[in-house]
Amino acid sequence: MRAACLSLLACLPLVTGCQKRLTQEECYSLLDKYVELLLASDRSDTSPPDRMKLKHEARAKANRDPAFAECSDRVSRREFECAMQASNPDGLEQCLL
Asked: CB 3.0–4.6 Å: which of 2, 63, 91, 97 could bond 86 by disulfide?
């Protein structure tokens, strides 16, 4: 039994390491989700056109940020899925820690 458990634990990195990397579009979806949560939390009266404008501004800033370029390398599939289910900015941030 113990040997079987050790074998399973030894294989765990192989299983989790083979998860599909995030696409650039998924990274943008994560950014959009964060902007939406921030707006809902801090500026709930923002009009839909202004929301869209703020998302575009966030994407433009992200495109200039070297850290955002590493999103697909740094954010795991599990972290992404957790973050996309978050209901507030703090919850999203916790998923990415």
From this structure: 91
Domain assignment present for 16: no
Kindly report the number of other CB atoms within 10 A of residue 78's CB atom. Answer: 11
Residue 3 lies in a domain: no
Q: Which of 26, 13, 41 is nearest to 81 (CA)?
A: 26
14 occurs within a structural domain: no
Tell me the residue range of the domain where 80 lies: 21-95
**Ordered alpha helix ranges (H), 1-97:** 2-17, 24-42, 48-64, 66-69, 71-74, 77-85, 89-95
Q: Please report how many Cα atoms fall inside a 13 Å half-sphere around the Cα of residue 52, on the Cβ side.
A: 2
Q: Which of 13, 15, 11, 31 is nearest to 71 (CA)?
A: 31
The structural domain count of the chain equals 1
- Name residues of the chain where pLDDT drops below 70: 1-18
Tell me, yes or no, if the pTM score tops 0.90: no
